[in-house]
Specification:
Helix content: 25-40%
Largest sheet: 4 strands, antiparallel
Structural class: alpha+beta
Strand order of the largest sheet: 3-1-2-8
CATH architecture of the largest domain: 2-Layer Sandwich
Oligomer: single chain
CATH topology of the largest domain: Alpha-Beta Plaits
Distance between the termini: 16 Å
Number of helices: 7
Length: about 240
């Protein structure tokens, strides 16, 4: 299978703490989408898409509405996206996406997590050059030929296009993500996306064993516990 099948699906939150972090991350993502354009759902396609994803994860409407209101100037928070790159045990690497209103606080927490396993952060692009930045979606359909031809007609060239067991998985340049969805939804109205993510995907993966694997799992857990961390990408086969 291709790299698209390696996408980590977001699991449904099982605990109150996990739900709280999920809601917080979506609130920040919605805020950023609203700030980057018009803070109105009907006039901002990126915001509309993010709100749709939040609703699919059962994020309450009041959280969504508060995030949009903050982008309109109601409230004092000002979030930004900050990406960190780091080297883990063995030949592992990690890219950590954060959404924060206090960069000094966030980098302190992230650096402390690496220090606890005696590993370190890297400089910009010390890790990222070994990853591809992709938009990946997957959905149930048997119309792979219709979808592929429609994409090519629109000038969208998939990085990967796979159909297996009734699931079509497509990866494209993130700049084509919105047009990709518009094209699919023109062929399959009310399509339900199994995967809908934009992220960093490793060009090659490594396998860790023994102490290296234990340390990696500990590092991943420490990073995942940081409230400001919204996504963790890595090159480890798990």
């Amino acid at each position: 299978m291709g790299r698209a099948y390696e996408v980590r699906k977001a699991s449904i939150a099982k605990t109150g703490a996990a739900k709280a972090k999920l809601y917080s991350n979506f609130a920040k993502e919605i805020y950023l989408a609203a700030k980057k354009g018009v803070p109105e759902i009907d006039s901002n396609i990126a915001l509309k898409r993010m709100v749709e994803k939040a609703k699919k994860q059962q994020v309450p409407s009041d959280i969504i509405n508060r995030a949009i209101d903050k982008a309109k100037g109601v409230g004092g928070e000002d979030y930004k996206e900050v990406i960190y790159e780091g080297f883990g045990p063995g030949a592992s690497t990690l890219i950590i996406k954060t959404l924060t209103d206090n960069v000094n606080r966030t980098v302190g927490f992230v650096r402390a997590a690496f220090n606890k396993v005696h590993k370190s952060l890297g400089v910009t692009n010390s890790v990222a050059f070994n990853y591809d930045h992709l938009a990946v979606i997957a959905f149930k359909s048997d119309k792979e030929e219709d979808v592929l031809m429609a994409l090519l007609d629109k000038g969208i060239e998939p990085v990967e296009f796979e159909s297996e067991d009734g699931i079509i998985t497509i990866s494209v340049n993130p700049n084509d993500a919105s047009n990709l969805k518009d094209t699919i939804e023109g062929i399959i109205p009310n399509v339900d996306y199994e995967i809908d993510e934009i992220g960093m995907y490793p060009k090659d993966k490594v396998t860790l064993e023994g102490e290296d694997l234990e340390l990696f799992n500990r590092l991943y857990g420490l990073l995942d516990e940081i409230e400001d961390v919204s996504e963790i990408y890595h090159n480890v086969n798990l």
